[in-house]
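Model it.
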Amino acid sequence: MRFSRETWLNAAFYVALIAVPLWALWADEPYYITLATRVAILALAGVGLNLALGLGGLVSLGHAIFFGVGGYAAGILASHAQSYTPLMEWPFTIEGTQSMPVIWLVAIIASGLVALGVGALSLRTSGVYFIMITLAFGQMFFYFTISWPAYGGEDGLSIYVRNHFLGLNTLVPIQFFGICVAVLSVALLFSARVVRSPFGLALNAARQNVARARAVGIEPYRLQLTAFVLSGIITGVSGALYADLNRFVSPTMFSWQMSGEIMVFVILGGVARLFGPVAGAALFILLEEVLGGLSDYWHIWLGLLLLLVVLFARGGLIGLIAGKRRSEGGADV
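Modeled.
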């Protein structure tokens, strides 16, 4: 079997993502393990958005909604578990929990339901109107959490002890990194399978030409809504992990800036490229560390880089190194 240059590049990024924290563990540099964990979590959010943006052509400026819903699911359940107060008592009692698998399940259900509602309404529009309505939903959630005093309001909500995972000590940085990279790996495998499935091929066809898709019996709305919900679920899980990483959630997780950052990861790495979000998140964190240490205005250089990518390297970092894919017929996504 002959692998493409992009497959080798993806493998190199994956090995590097694992090798850096292992080196940091050997060198007793836990800070770099935390940085790699942040890359894995933010890349997971990018994988979620890439499913809607890269495959479905849905430019969403509201994906921070699902990131925040996942984060608040983790924060709220953990805070009730820590204070030994039930989440609700009528008509039945629901207790808080610090079990990561249970929190992920709640984050999946909550972000999936929210994505279903937001997507069902937003996908009635298209183009710039879709962008604006997703942005509007994001701002609604942002201001709602600001005015939600029960869970910290504008000050946010602290998680004093990181949530638990059976058999592991999540407070040990390398073990928490292992959990995050395992979840990212599952999401990448799932995304790769979706792209090659009949659903993914039909969604790609609908993205390229809606009229032709309808002419052969493909209904774009249902396909796009399904992709939007799957995208929201993956982003929601990343939000739950991000809450555990920082042991803190705040309305900032719902902000339009957060939506913009997730989109930047995908564009920098390569839209519709499997490892584009991983490369983009790693590059973003690297720029933040290097340029942020030199100037408080490092976003200017990030903006310039983004401008160059959009103008001269529309395949992002992956496309720049691996080149255009044969399956695209030489066309950029």
